[in-house]
Amino acid sequence: xxxxxxxxxxxxxxxxxxxxxxxxxxxxxxxxxxxxxxxxxxxxxxxxxxxxxxxxxxxxxxxxxxxxxxxxxxxxxxxxxxxxxxxxxxxxxxxxxxxxxxxxxxxxxxxxxxxxxxxxxxxxxxxxxxxxxxxxxxxxxxxxxxxxxxxxxxxxxxxxxxxxxxxxxxxxxxxxxxxxxxxxxxxxxxxxxxxxxxxxxxxxxxxxxxxxxxxxxxxxxxxxx
Length: 225
Hints:
Elements: H1 2-22, E1 30-32, E2 35-37, E3 52-58, H2 61-68, E4 74-82, H3 91-95, E5 102-109, H4 116-125, E6 134-135, E7 138-139, E8 145-149, H5 152-167, E9 178-181, E10 186-187, H6 195-198, H7 203-219
Parallel strand pairs: 8-9
Antiparallel strand pairs: 1-2, 3-5, 3-8, 4-5, 4-10, 6-7
Helix pairs in contact: 1-4, 1-5, 2-7
């Protein structure tokens, strides 16, 4: 597995560089090995005076929330449900897998400090996007890997990243992350919010989330608050 981690680090670095190039007006195509990226037409310029929103699902939202909270430029992280058809779902209902919703985190961020491209890098590196409806021991459609894009720019960047990772065969299995339009976010019950920070000594937090956060802090040391 160690060589897979090294390969992923290299590929993600290349992808980040290529995505940065896509924001320019240059007409050149960019190619790196098996990664073939095309410039995004009409990429909008973000107003650094306004906050932006990203919505990701990568398994248990307790873990995802704890990681993104620690990044510079993150204004707010909320745990909740999205991607389904049932209005105002409860945690118990979502756990049945019948609502269509995934556990997600809604992230409000300052694009003058951290970009959506950088958030995507964190997203891909903090879960396994090749396991369908599963992350570790958490099994069910509510734990699926999903990006709910808020505009066409987010959609294009997410699809390019996914295609680049698949083309480079970073993992033995294909990436199964869903990339779908954002429709509505239902904030989870209050006891789910800021869960790790409030329950750091709870067994699940100690044995599952804390080790993940320690690795996360090493990988993204330059982006931490």
